[in-house]
Amino acid sequence: MAKLEMKNLYYRYKGANKDVLKDVNCRFEGGQLNAIVGPSGSGKTTLLSIMAGLDKPTQGTITINNIDLNDLDLDEYRRDSVSMVFQAFQLFPLLTALENLSFPMEYKGMDKNQARERSKKILESLGIDGDKQFRYPSNLSGGEQQRVAIGRTLATGAKVILADEPTGNLNDENSYKIIDIFKRLAHEQGFCVIIVTHDMEIAEQSDNVWRIKDGTIEKIK
Ligand SMILES: Nc1ncnc2c1ncn2[C@@H]1O[C@H](COP(=O)(O)OP(=O)(O)OP(=O)(O)O)[C@@H](O)[C@H]1O
Q1: Of 41, 143, 194, 215, which is most buried, counting CB atoms within 10 Å of its CB?
Q2: Mutate which of 17, 18, 19, 44 to test ligand 1's pocket (most atoms within 8 Å of Cβ)?
């Protein structure tokens, strides 16, 4: 199972005069739902960007399965090892729900029919079935759109899911559904799920909770 680990990690934005992340040490493992909480501006999104391979730490190391990201092809890492879910879903608006999953698979070289079949199965497992698969995102509810977005991350085959405020645009009922899906993916399929959230109730449902304050991180559950 995937393991993402940060050791003595610091980050400072170019031109800034102070570190946004300071001596961060934490480990996230497959099979568990992890939450990162903390006030606005504390460094949560910055840490997620580093884990996504979009930014490199100024100091310290980040490893996946004990391999330093510096020793990996970062394009490959971003494509195959990690996938992201966002607050605003970020689906392709001109593609149907099904195409939102199958298009990236075809782009990576999978046969068109195979990509469609695999996409259908993934969407069905997330409760997006029947005509909903053929609708454009704008004709789906927020909760349904977020489930399609989760489906898109599953379609990549990546075992680490990074979610930035994934329930931020959803009502309570849909938020719980999404967290339940993340829980099942972690507990039943071994995904390493890391969510950034402002919502302590959501965080409390996670196996592990980390709090960032002024760039330093501590495990609170
Ligand atoms: N590109 C940038 N250049 C300089 N400073 C930045 C940049 N992006 C973010 N920051 C600063 O880094 C700090 C951490 O920002 P970050 O977005 O990681 O916080 P956050 O905890 O995700 O906040 P929020 O909950 O409001 O999204 C903030 O002080 C922010 O102003």
Answers
A1: 194
A2: 44
